[in-house]
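Researcher: Please predict.
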Amino acid sequence: MDDEYDVIVCGTGLKECILSGLLSVHGKKVLHLDRNPYYGGDCASLNITNLWQKFRPGTEPPKELGANRDWNVDLIPKFIMASGDLVKILLKTKVSRYLEWKSCDGSYVYQYQEAGLFSGAKYIHKVPATGTEGMKSPLMGLLEKPRFINFVQFVMGWDDADANTHQGIDPKRHTMAQVYQKFGLQEATVDFVGHAVALQPNDDYFNKAAGPTIQKCKLYLDSVLQYGGSPFIYPIYGLGGLPEGFSRLSAIHRGTYMLNQGIDGFVYGEDGRVCGVKAGEQVAKCKMVICDPSYAEPQRTEARGQIIRAICILGAPIPDTKNQEGKPALSCQIILPQKQMKRKNDIYVMMVSWAHQIAAKDKYVAIVSTVVETANPEKEIEPALKLLGPILQKFVQVSEIRVPVADGTKDGVFVTATYDPSSHFEDASAEVLQMWKTITGEALDLTVTPDEEDQ
């Protein structure tokens, strides 16, 4: 460790691994450290023994759950948007060649509908992924469906650079509420569009400029067109494969990795800039440090609340979730919008299964997550847990939301934020791209050539 590096990266979460991989590719000498014996940090996928050690130390997992090789349980529940920035980064860096993918079977939204004469009460409904599904969807009445289709066509035709596609909407001046009003969308439709299509975490976006939300809707619809059924994809063997893939990229370009290596702090020069990382009596010299909040001095980040995540092992798929053939879903997302729950923030459910090589045969893993709003976080997620059916095992973790207070340019210490409770990596990808621009002074070119797409 007593050597000199351009960059020292502390923590092997996805954001840190993307940055270390990119910096290595661009010729920087990188040392990457992690206090854990595995890659991934908060984004790790744990086998069944490590899962029990983390949440129930000193106890053993039940034998009927199978062997370690059958399990890769994510600590942070996320899908990948099929047309999003993370996919572009994976293609650009060719890390995509290290991973296999499966598309998500479907995305659902919670909207309670009372029992009818010939049907029981319904709680979750599939978010329409095709025009046919849109016409059949119980989320909208008969007169509402043409209005919804007009809105979808407007979004699909939107081009930031072509005002002729804007139908009189100024993306910077008009609010999203005004856009909904223009198309005459009803409250229930607005609720599922905002939360299950634009994937907004709450209703704060409603009276803000419409441009970003229109782009979020367009990204969702573009992603649906990639595979059909859902905009999301997921890597076989779990999300832990993502940081491992970028670690491999860094190693190929002479990056050095040290697991089981904690640190005792950063070393600063007389000019106040970071010049090394200390571990025991050893000091590794460097010009900059990139780290997650758990490695940074406390004053470098501030708390912005808490997130609760409940990892649930199931013996059957979530009831009432289906794939495109009408069979029980092997993977899905469910969003419980804040308004339906009388909350300030949405609740998210992500389910993957043995079909993704993350659980033993015929086992499923559902992870429920949201921003904590009360002194009793577990009670807050009860409505989501009730949707899951019988739960075999449950592991609950409440963690702080921490964000950096400075961009790192003053002293060379660049700190990432903790992961949000949302169901995808788009905000994390945007943070990485912004950090790259801050560190290097240039935007990362995500243009993918045809030969890169074939990887």
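Model: The chain is about 30% helix and 25% strand.
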